[in-house]
Amino acid sequence: MNDRIPGFATLAVHAGAQPDPTTGARATPIYQTTSFVFNDSDHAASLFGLQSFGNIYTRITNPTTSVLEERVAALEGGTAALATASGHAAQVVAFQQLLRPGDEFIASRKLYGGSINQFTHAFKSFGWNVVWADSDDIASFERAVTPHTKAIFIESIANPGGSITDIEAISAVARQAGVPLIVDNTLATPYLIRPIDHGADIVIHSLTKFLGGHGNSLGGIIVDAGTFDWSKDNKYPMLSEPRPEYHGIKLQETFGNFAFAIACRVLGLRDLGPALSPFNAFMIMTGIETLPLRMQRHCENAKAVAEFLSAHPAVAAVNYAGLTSSPYYTLARKYAPKGAGAVFTFSLKGGYEAGVSLVSNLKLFSHLANVGDTRSLVIHPASTTHSQLDDDAKTRSGAGPDVVRLSIGIEDKEDLIADLEQALSA
Amino acid sequence: MNHDHYNDTWIREILNTVKTVAMIGASPQNVRPSYFVFKYLAERGYDMIPINPGQVGKSLIGKSFVASLREIDRPIDMIDIFRNADHIMPIIDDALTLNPLPKVIWMQLGVRNDEAAKKAEAAGIKVVMNRCPKIEYGRLSSEISWMGVNSRTLSSKRAPIPTQGMRLSLNRASVGGGGTDAADRAAKNKNDAV
Asked: Which residues does chain A have within 8 Å of residue B135's beta carbon, measured at their own beta carbons?
């Protein structure tokens, strides 16, 4: 097997995992330990100084979590990855390596409501300033670039509206501005879209969603594409300048094309602390083994449900990029030919009240604030995930008052359609 | 020889066959990459020789510094160079006067000089550029996976019992650079722009 490139499903099962050297265990053991013994004081010093590869403390590295990290890095086509306690934690850790107080980053307005809140409020208290742009209008990103811009942030498939972002066009803006493009790939997963193939420099996930896939474990991850030259000018001192925390080591010089992932680990995770539990890492990597099978089913079901809804007399509109009527259909064909994901919104002719009534009449769909579960889920974003936005911002992010969001699971599609049908006619 | 990308098989063969490695630009400062690459390779059984004319009379983890390649008393399998691209050609010229010739000339991360590489290759020497032997060894042995790095290797075989806390076998099936094309392209574009 000389330099044969394995397929996606093979990597989903095998990447990062090798039978345990001590016991021969084939499934990756859960190394539920806080700390790891040193061979001697010289070994300890070389680990603390980043001179040797190895484990010190589970806040920084853990042999269970590292299997998950390598697996996601392999699936995304990145050079390395760093897991965190949640998707939100991944964003804080990634931006900490890029931004100083007073810096700016440009973000698409079409984002998960939690990200909009984090960028608007929490980040502002760090002096990190978000500048909003419209992912349907590439020029709005160009206009937003200033000398303080340090990064551009988008979602590949945007939550909640299910719209598809033109990653390559925005990547060109980022390249022109000399800043990295960060893509949140949570709703697509690398099975549907690999943003690095389209010019992303950093990929972020909430592992809680389709990657873990079973609605049982929180997690987040940052994938380093290995594409960005952090030393080109002096804009990213965390990567290009001698680090006082590590006796003057320069991370890009030392770690080359996975320096960003190392910075997130040894400057971000070490000092901010949102490490993933090894148990959650185990649950999530077990989920990833079936990612290709689940995503095929999620997408097949989502398309069937979207087609059913768009033909239903009580439905005003269905926003699913997999439908030929969608304004995002062409982008979906280009970026996600295997399927447009399984999270989308629709609106009812009966407006807000009809939406509330639908949610309460559903028997199989669960009313909760998550997506990407094996189970089908429903929520009214305007009163929940996007409730802290004003009405304009709600509508701009695809969460207007008449909108209902579905996350389609892997049940029998006939049962999902029957449940919607009875709830719509109840 | 295409230096934008190296097959894992090729890198593995180099790391499995060379024994004596002379490191040009080895630093006694323990925060410099040359110091800990030197130490790492010595710990993995390579016969390491530090070259740094400013440090003659001193030693690096017990190995005496020498001033130049010509002062080494035994055949050298590989020369690992920690100098920037402008300083490579005179080193190649020096290396070509050795008898026997070195088998491999390795230039560190960020260092690439195609003209010098051609000259060495014309004499039958293998050349690796813009790579780190510590990272490549760690990657191919999967030891580097502990840092969440994509080793681009797979194995269904039980790993050998770690010695000194390290996983050491290089004999893993290789994924051969599939998967990080974007990083390889970026490195090539950076080089083209220089």
From this structure: 255-256
